[in-house]
Specification:
six-stranded antiparallel β-sheet, alpha+beta
Length: 622
């Protein structure tokens, strides 16, 4: 289990901060049942459960508590001017405090790893909260009449005296509409989230975002595509080495895609040198299920995944085929441990099966490649615009001639040059505009109008001026925090493709090396990882379709029965249109599982509504 943290800054001594901090840490026992340590006074206190005691600066002015894993420790020690003799005596949390004292919020540009932390300035009682770049460890805070408080999970904040748990209906409606965003609001009214790569300052009864990390485009001093690939591979190998560590069982999610394949292959190579083994796990449809694919996507990725695993003698490859009903049976446990309704519930069955298998094998680390689309395997056509900016239109046109989709190149250039309305008209006339998916009939008015308007704005086609800007936007819009994994299965999720060093290397290569070319959709990926993974992965043009057997996992009768139970909750009925839900249940299809309308309405809206309704019923029961 990962350490959890909590703390309170009391206003004018209205409550005992140490006592309140202890109550919050007791409420966080589901996420870590270890020993509780609290530091501070009755006016301001920080605490940790299952981790080291909060550490204090030598001048006594700062107190810091964190759930921290620092990678690339030697680099950080060198920048801080700490000698090797002192290295062994410093915990990751103490190292983070040294970095905070040196750089304050700019430490996010220097720390590598995963961290959620709170720094309290004792003389002024200013509270600073932060999460590292693309962090997977969560942090939340609340301001009230009695002061400010923070915790690793919102449940901790409800342990404070007088704290009430209220539903943020607007936010719940957006979640039910499958709206994807990162921001400070949560489904709990009055509870705010610290975003990945953000530092928040709380002082004078106000919270202010002081810094937000984002990938910066700094060109690497490379003279060829080969040198660019070497730079990415070097950063990637260092990230993998740090994340697999020196002991313990490591598992990795392995699909047919480039990202998880590179992660699993690099991990296997590293572990082999240490005489260790890797457990590679692939989700696939249930036995005997002939799941249809969507378009040319791969419904069963186990064959391609096996080709990657088969290259390494120290890899044990397991294909996990979840039994029917696994996701429905696990929904309440997942919602009980998450800070928001389970996302992408239609995929939950294979995700659960993979973690169950890893936990059964004693794994303490699960490697993923969730951010790889924005880093190691990125190659959007929008990078053609970066070629224009970096090397001029003549070079860009020559690069465009080699692109496999010239119409796509034309679309990118048009989007950069035309006003938004003209660009949308061009997309509609050319057939490039995707079918509108902004209708949310299952949400009650006026919440429905709110959700649909937000979706329309979010789905508005933008003419990006830079492929790097597009990737940065998507990277910052992702928060892959999953507190269920350490709580349910006792393991930590780690993603080498989201490592800050990897991100910086991938954002530092010349754009022309990233533009797809005929016969090679990802030329730079081939140079960087072609020796690790099979050509079927490198040259693959078909994406995987995970959870293709979702309709077998969620039969109409079981979904209907669960909805009827949940709709008896007034809070659920206030959000959802029960008549619309029952109408869709009555017309639950018996075929056409690969049709876009069926996927959007039933795998998307209906299953997301089920997850949201269950979350509400758990936190606001009848």
């Amino acid at each position: 289990m990962l350490p959890v943290i909590a703390g309170v800054v009391s206003r004018s001594g209205r409550s005992d901060a140490r006592q309140d901090c202890g109550a919050m840490l007791s409420a966080l026992a589901l996420w870590n049942s270890g020993a509780t340590v609290i530091a501070g006074s009755h006016e301001a206190a920080l605490g940790s459960r299952g981790g080291p005691a909060p550490c204090r600066s030598t001048d006594g002015e700062w107190l810091l508590a964190g759930s921290v894993r620092v990678d690339a420790r030697r680099n950080l020690l060198r920048e801080l001017g700490i000698d090797c003799g002192e290295e062994l005596a410093l915990s990751d949390q103490e190292l983070l405090l040294r970095a905070w004292l040196r750089w304050r919020e700019q430490l996010l540009d220097r720390i590598t790893g995963d961290a959620a932390f709170a720094a309290l300035h004792l003389p002024s009682r200013e509270l600073w909260l932060g999460r590292s770049a693309v962090a997977l460890r969560p942090l939340f805070y609340r301001l009230s009449d009695t002061g400010a408080a923070f915790a690793s999970h919102p449940v901790g904040l409800f342990a404070l005296p007088g704290a009430s748990k209220q539903l943020n209906l607007d936010h719940a409606a957006l979640m039910a509409a499958q709206y994807s965003f990162v921001g400070s609001p949560t489904i709990f009214a009055g509870i705010a989230r610290v975003c990945p790569g953000e530092v928040v300052r709380i002082a004078d009864e106000r919270a202010r975002s002081m810094y937000r990390w984002r990938p910066v485009r700094r060109l690497l001093p490379v003279r060829s595509a080969g040198e660019a690939a070497e730079a990415i591979r070097s950063a990637f190998d260092r990230a993998v080495a740090d994340m697999v560590g020196d002991d313990g069982q490591v598992a990795a999610q392995l699909s047919s895609g480039r990202d998880s394949s590179a992660v699993a292959a690099a991990a296997a190579s590293r572990l082999a040198g240490q005489g260790r083994r890797l457990l590679a796990l692939t989700g696939a449809p249930a036995e005997g299920c002939e799941a249809p694919s969507v378009g040319d996507r791969i419904a069963d990725e186990s064959t391609v995944a096996a080709a990657t695993a088969g290259r390494y003698s120290n890899v044990e490859h397991r294909v996990c085929r979840p039994p029917p009903g696994l996701a429905l049976a696990s929904l309440r446990d997942l919602n009980r441990l998450h800070h928001q309704p389970v996302t992408n519930f239609g995929n939950a069955h294979w995700w659960i099966a993979l973690h169950q298998a890893a936990a059964g094998a004693g794994a303490k680390v699960m490697l993923t490649g969730a951010a790889g689309n924005f880093t190691v395997s990125a190659g959007p056509a929008e990078h053609l615009l970066d070629v224009v900016q970096e090397e001029g239109m003549a070079v860009a046109l020559r690069v465009a001639e080699g692109m496999p989709n010239r119409l796509g190149a034309a679309r990118v250039l048009a989007g950069a040059m035309l006003p938004g309305g003209a660009y949308r008209t061009l997309l509609r006339l050319s057939g490039w505009l995707a079918e509108d998916e902004t209708s949310v009939p299952i949400v009650r008015e006026p919440l429905r109008r709110l959700a649909e308007e937000r979706l329309r704005v979010d789905n508005e086609p933008l003419g990006w001026r830079s492929g790097f800007d597009l990737r940065a936007h998507l990277l910052l819009d992702a928060d892959a925090t999953d507190p269920m994994v350490p709580a349910m299965w006792g393991m930590e999720t780690r993603d080498p493709t989201a490592d800050r060093r990897v991100i910086e290397a991938c954002f530092g290569v010349p754009a022309r090396y990233l533009v797809p070319q005929r016969g090679d959709p990802r030329p730079l990926y081939r140079m960087a990882f072609g020796d690790l993974v099979p050509d079927a992965v490198v040259a693959g043009r078909r994406r995987g379709y995970q959870g293709a057997d979702w309709y077998e996992q969620f039969p109409r009768a079981a979904v209907k029965a669960r909805f009827e139970e949940l709709l008896a909750n007034p809070a659920v009925e206030e959000l959802f249109d029960a008549q619309a839900i029952r109408g869709l249940l009555e017309h639950w299809p018996s075929s056409g599982w690969a049709e876009p309308r069926v996927i959007h309405t039933y795998r998307g809206l209906m299953l997301k509504a089920l997850a949201v309704a269950d979350f509400i019923d758990h936190h606001w029961p009848v």
